[in-house]
Amino acid sequence: MRVFLFLQLIALVIFVYTMYFLPSNLYFISVVSIFIIVNTVGLTYYIFRAWAKELIASSKSKWSRFLYFLLVAVAIVGITFLFLNISGMWISKYSEDSLANFTNSLLVVSTFLLVSFGIAYLTLRRELERQLREYEKLKGAQQKLSIQVIRYKTNPHFLYNSLSTAISMLDLGEAPEAVKEYLSNLAELFRTVFQAPEVWTLKDELELAARYLEIQKLRIEGLNYEIKVDAECDKVRIPSLVLQPIVENAVIHGIAKSKDGRKILIECFIENGRVVIKVIDDGKGSENIVPGTGLKLVEELLKAFARNVELKVESYPEKGTTVILSWQRV
Predict the structure, then answer these.
(1) Which of 82, 85, 167, 285 has the most CB atoms at less than 10 Å from its CB?
(2) How far is it, in rounded angstroms, from Cα 226 to Cα 176?
(3) How many helices (H) and strands (E) does the chain have?
(4) Stretch 157-178: mean pLDDT, rounded?
């Protein structure tokens, strides 16, 4: 679209210079002038409006905003100068009768073109809005299907890990009362998991993670956890269970396999327009860690929901593992 505006401006410049050399036919000039000027003003308005939306939606520098307002001012001054210059030229060269005829023809042509442009604009706008609604419906259906398919993969994985923990407690000779309490709390956790909506807030997700970690504290002696969340993160919407595999990995593959590590830290903050979540454990760690099924499912699930998703894993032997999940905030 900016290319069309550039070409339109070139046509306008050529036309203005032509007017000084061929100003004899006022009727012809009126038709051509109103057509080119209206198109140029319309394209300029459209480009600057789209550019303004980009500036509002993004976090661009103050220089970009200054350049925008500077160009708007230049455009207004340029259009004003153009109209005044053309009007002055016609007044100096033609009689009052000629100018009156020209003004009448200009009004007729202007009315015709504006009505034509208005009808075309409304027709195209309605068609575009209809296509956008159909596209959004299709996109929403595809997103919902992707989330449901990945959720069917995630729930069995979570169930398997949780039951394996109960079996491990029995193998380690834990008291039956402790196992019973664990299974009772686990059943409550499962009910929350299976009744969870497809999408909820990050606050809900972290409450689920805290409940899970409270259950794990019954099995792992000395396990502690801390959750740090910026206030602006609470209302961020994400697919439910997106953090659960990461927290499970921190407990099962990090803390449970370490002799000294006993703490898990979950942090959430917004940085440079991106939502960032860190899950840090001081467990076993690994030099060459390979993301497993859980982390791959997390990445798939979030990519079906958000944009510019990144998942990074940093791990060091006997020092712990950090999983960093981030995406562009909308």
Answers:
(1) 285
(2) 29
(3) 8, 7
(4) 78
pLDDT digits (tens, 9 = 90+) for 57-77: 665 667 777 887 888 788 778
pLDDT, tens only, 220-233: 888 999 999 999 99
φ, ψ of residue 284 to 5 degrees: the values are -65, -45
How far is it, in rounded angstroms, from Cα 104 to Cα 89?
A: 18
Whole-angstrom CA distances from 215 to 10, 40, 150 are 71, 67, 25
Q: Contact, 220 vs 233, CB < 8 A? A: no
pTM of the full predicted structure? 0.57
- Which phi and psi (to 5°) does residue 322 adopt? -125, 125
Question: How does DSSP classify residue 156?
Answer: H
Q: Amino acid identity of 250?
A: A
Backbone angles phi, psi at 128, to 5 degrees: -65, -40
| Spacing of C-alpha 16 from chain mean position | 44
Choice between 145 and 122, residue whose per-residue pLDDT is larger: 122
